Amino acid sequence: MTPFYNPTLSYEENYQQGPFGLFASADKPVIPVTKPTSFLGYQVNTPFGIPAGPLLNANFARAAFAYGYDICVYKTVRTVEHKSHPLPNVLAIHPEGKLSAQLDTVLADNHYSQPLSITNSFGVPSYKPEIWQADMARAVQATGKGQILIGSFQGTQGLGSIEDDYALAARLVAETKAHALEANMSCPNEGAHHLLCFDFDKVERIVHAMKNAVPDLPLLIKLAYFSDEQSLTNLLKKIGHLVDGFSTINTLSARPVNAQGQPALSANRPEGGVCGDAIRWAGLDMVQRLASLRARMELKFAIVGVGGVNQPQHFKQYLSAGADAVMSATGAMWHPNLALEIKQNYPTGAL
Ligand SMILES: Cc1cc2nc3c(=O)[nH]c(=O)nc-3n(C[C@H](O)[C@H](O)[C@H](O)COP(=O)(O)O)c2cc1C
């Protein structure tokens, strides 16, 4: 199946020319009617969608809504323009068995075979706020009944305080009338312990700043995989009562290499985030642990399960693990009919 994001083209070319394949076709599918589910205070047709990343702009989001993805996240934006890494940004990877969370070395190439896992390496590009705000507002207008658009954003280091920059980004996203906010805290290089979400004190300060800036919109935090139970508990003690939900996981880091054993992305990008089939175990594990901690700590946050969803039964697995909503990036990119198949298999949206 032709993916709706073309890995052989640059981020900018995808932004200007995409989406591709089925998402570009003029014929739109007939969407089965489903029983709505409550999510973050909204009634959504089916609690399924596409997480931050593959939906680069309103053209991508409009196509995703037309194909029945009822919760769509607009790719992470910043308060300042930021260039994408050069090509390659996406490569297929071929782990032997299950990918671990310990920075595995994995073969990467252009052979996209199912079940598919990929590495993605963009550096979180962003256009200027004037550009993405107008476009995100168009994406919000593309929602149909029972659909919502979530705006993903992150702060940028070196612009003053990171708390203020996250708060400003939250305010700029809110101005687009997005239905909810998602703060990406799982991107490398913004926190003391490599990923911002592992720097709990900073996370707490940023959450307070965002809630002060935009008190009325639901706020999700995008988390990486936590292998350590105590760390996850400590994070929830700090912010579990302040935020409206967690979206997890982002990617598992690995070292993608070519057939000669050289870094496959480039010499100065030896590591890349891995997503797709190989990380489903980690997404399910995080969701299960968050759900049991939520019950034990008597918290109320929503859980968005992400990672390796490429078949309808994976949607069901995530809901059984305790997710309130489920999303697919890699799976949906190569299989745009996934939301339709989920609606056909699970018409009530629940188990
Ligand atoms: C092409 C691509 C771009 C992505 N960009 C972002 C991003 O900008 N912000 C973010 O929080 N996650 C980003 N992600 C990570 C996804 O949101 C998701 O967490 C991850 O891909 C795991 O889901 P999957 O296994 O269904 O792909 C991106 C993923 C892909 C495939």
What does this structure look like?
The chain has helices at residues 11-17, 58-66, 129-141, 162-174, 200-213, 229-239, 280-296, 312-321, 330-334, 338-345; strands at residues 37-39, 42-44, 48-50, 71-77, 90-94, 105-109, 117-120, 148-153, 180-184, 188-191, 194-195, 219-223, 245-248, 252-257, 272-276, 302-306, 325-327. With 351 residues, it is an alpha/beta fold. The chain has one domain (11-345): Alpha-Beta Barrel (TIM Barrel), CATH 3.20.20. It has an eight-stranded parallel β-barrel, surrounded by five helices. The radius of gyration is 18 Å and the shape is globular. The mean pLDDT is 95. The structure holds flavin mononucleotide.
| Ligands (ions, cofactors included) | flavin mononucleotide
CATH-defined architecture: Alpha-Beta Barrel
Counted by DSSP, the helix tally is: 10
Look at the structure and give the CATH class.
Alpha Beta
Radius of gyration from the alpha-carbon trace, in angstroms: 18 Å
Q: Low-confidence parts lasting 5 or more residues at pLDDT below 50?
A: none
What's the rounded overall pLDDT mean?
95
Structural class: alpha/beta
Query: How large a portion of the residues is in β-strands, by DSSP E?
Result: 15-25%
Total DSSP E strands: 17
Q: Could you state the CATH homologous superfamily?
A: Aldolase class I
Domain tally: 1
Helix content: 25-40%
CATH overall fold name: TIM Barrel
CA-CA gap between termini:
29 Å
Biggest beta-sheet profile: 8 strands, parallel, barrel
Pfam family, one: DHO_dh
GO molecular function: dihydroorotate dehydrogenase activity
Cofactor: FMN
GO biological process, one term: 'de novo' pyrimidine nucleobase biosynthetic process
